[in-house]
Amino acid sequence: MITPEMTISEVLRKKPSARKVLFKYGICDCCGGNVTLKDSADFRGIDIDKLIKEIEES
Question: Which of 6, 10, 22, 42 has the most CB atoms around its CB within 10 Å?
């Protein structure tokens, strides 16, 4: 299960297929991927629930 509090690097370790979804929204794991999924989504104006759903379905 992917949660908003997971870092980008944690998401990618748990679900490597998420990379394509994250890149679609301009989210990458540069700088070590130490930013949370929620912070990344908020910064880009992305609905976190929609993002997580897409990641889970990838």
Answer: 22
Supply φ then ψ for residue 6, to 5 degrees: -70, 145
Per-residue tens of pLDDT for the chain, all 58 residues: 999 999 999 999 999 999 999 999 999 887 778 999 999 999 999 999 999 999 999 9
Who's near 42: CB < 8 A, 6+ residues apart?
48
User: What does the H/E/C string look like for 23-45?
Assistant: HHCCCCCHHHHCCEHHHHHHHHC
pTM over 0.70: yes
Nearest to 38 by CA among 18, 1, 2: 2
